[in-house]
Amino acid sequence: MSSDAWEVVIGMEVHAQPRTRSKMFCGCAVAPLNAPPNTYVCEVCLGLPGVLPVPNKAAVEAVLKTALALNCEIPRHTKFDRKNYMYPDLPKGYQISQYDLPMSVNGSIEVGERKVRIRRVHLEEDTGKLIHAGDKLHKAWESYVDLNRAGVPLMEIVSEPDVRSADEAREYAMELQALLRAVGASDADMEKGQMRAEPNISIRRAGSEELGVKTELKNINSFRALQRAIAFEVERQKQVLESGGTVVQETRGWSESEQRTFSQRSKELAEDYRYFPEPDIPPLELDRGWIEELRGALPELPSVRRARLATTLPPSVAVLIGGDRDLADLFEQAVARGAPAAATGTWIVNEIAPSGKLPSPENLAELLRMVGEGSITRDQGREVLMESVETGRTPAEIVAEHGYAQVSDESELRVLAEAVIDANPKAASDYRAGRKQAMQALMADLRKRAPQANPKVAMELLLKLLG
Ligand SMILES: [Zn+2]
Q1: What distance in angstroms lies between residue 41's CA and the mean position of ligand 1's atoms?
Q2: Residue 2 has pLDDT above 60, yes or no
């Protein structure tokens, strides 16, 4: 049977770490990545007896902003629940999460041309981390636990099973990352563990309304891995079903080194966790005035901004800049200071985005003016830009200090052009004999002798002298 006859059905669960200074239910600071193990802990996040958790308002606010940006409904009441299970990275024996009264429900997000429904966005706490150390020679295996992450806030964004391909899942996660950053809810850096995706995947015969048996992939921490892991899993399920087998509902991991998914454990059901209301935290009644205030303060969302940028920029440039709040702000502020839109877009995409360092809009506008007027070359502009970002000094100061300003003075450049022709008699005669590409060698020598020479004026002089 043709494999085209299958439809892919994917639901996405994404965990993102709200941008907060402290943990979810205690005063501990959120540990930096390289902090020594177990140095950001207290009796609350260690789950010692007799302590009381207090919800972090900044984390609640981050969830509400995200939910509003995703067009979710915010119910009047919400509560926390205990999800009970035993694992060494969870000293309390339960995780504080949200079960039947999440902070928000029924939203949606535009992914390309399609709308993906959002089932809920809720708030919970992270667990610790196990570190497995082994000594193969002596067959001694030890595991350590680092509880720095225990109690760090996490929001979980759950979609309806509306995603239809591995590529679309990747696009969904990227759109979500841009949205989280735009509203300031999370830095959502996957490499730093601030965002991870857990897609659940099933396939069914095209046209069927019934859902197939799904598998869930755990803790995918890059867009590339997400796309590949889903593509692998879809192919695996097709092979199982087409050879007459059945897909087992289970949790699977992704092996980056082997580029395949592998079975981890059979899927738990909600009843396995024996959820019950967290007795130490009263249900929250969310103030409607606060919610409306947050709604009113939402910034322009990435999809809207992208559409607006696409009116002045080529689509590929608009997509890149519009998907990143910092780049989009820089673009608009530099243009507001008189920088031309097209050149600003090109410099942001080619120079600034890859370097990961942002100049001030004033400095970018000043630099682009100098390059545009020809008072420095593009190559010099690149160096000045990077130096300006490193030091915070203005491009004009840097150009003056390096003596970069381009020489456009004709009499000075004429002497230079004559010297170049004298020093390269072969190239000069080749050019006169009609081999136009010989000009490249002459210009290369000229630039080597005088990097600050204005190339346009210098080339005109060479042409005149050779003509
Ligand atoms: Zn703590």
Answers
A1: 4
A2: no
Return the pLDDT at 3.
45
Instruction: Report the percent of the chain where pLDDT is more than 90.
Output: 73
Distance between Cα 27 and ligand 1 center (Å)? 6
pLDDT per residue over 122-155, tens digit each? 999 999 998 887 766 667 678 899 999 999 999 9
* Distance from the alpha carbon of residue 24 to the mean position of ligand 1, in angstroms: 9
Note the pLDDT tens digit of each residue in 396-415.
Answer: 889 888 877 777 788 888 98
Ligand 1 center–CA 84 separation, angstroms: 20
What was the pLDDT predicted at 380?
87
> Mean pLDDT across the chain, nearest whole number?
92
**How far, in Å, from the CA of 25 to the mean position of ligand 1?**
7
Distances in Å between the Cα of 281 and the Cα atoms of 27, 74, 78 are: 16, 19, 11
Cα 285 from Cα 7, distance rounded (Å): 42
Distance 40 CA to ligand 1 centre (A): 7
Please give the distance, rounded to the nearest whole angstrom, from the Cα atom of residue 280 to the centre of ligand 1.
16
Give the C-alpha distances (Å, rounded to integers) separating 231 from 138, 261, 449: 40, 10, 55
CA–centroid distance, residue 31 to ligand 1 (Å) = 10
Ligand 1 centroid distance, CA of 58 (Å): 16
Tokens representing 382 are 């690149």
How far away, in angstroms, is 44 Cα from ligand 1 center? 5
- Residue 134 alpha carbon to ligand 1 centre in Å: 29
Distance 80 CA to ligand 1 centre (A): 18
For 67-101, what is each residue's pLDDT tens digit?
Answer: 999 999 999 999 999 999 988 899 999 999 999 99
Cα 355 to averaged position of ligand 1 atoms, centre (Å): 36
Please tell me the distance between residue 14's alpha carbon and the centre of ligand 1 in angstroms.
Answer: 24
